[in-house]
Amino acid sequence: MDLAEAHQLHAFFFPFMAQGHLIPFVDMARLFSSHGVKVTIITTPLNARLFSNTIDRGKQLGLDISILLIPFPSEEAGLPQGYENAGSFTNFPAVASKFFDALSLFQQPFEDLLKEYRPDRIVADMFFPWVTDVSQSLGYLVSYFMELVSSSLCVSDNRYLCCFGSSRSDRVDEVSALDSLKKPTHFGKMMERIRESEGRSFGILVNSFNELEPTYADHYRKVVGRKAWHIGPVSLSNMDIADKAERGNKASIDEHVLNDEEAEQRRIIEEFEKKMEGRGLIIRDWAPQILFLDHPAVGGFVTHCGWNSTLESISAGVPMITWPLFAEQFHNEKLVTQVLKVGLSVGAMEFQRVGGEKEVVKRDNIKKTVEQLMGSGEEAELMRSRVRELKKMAERALEEGGSSYADVTTLIEELRQLPWPAI
Question: Which domain of life is it from (predicted)?
Answer without folding.
Answer: Eukaryota
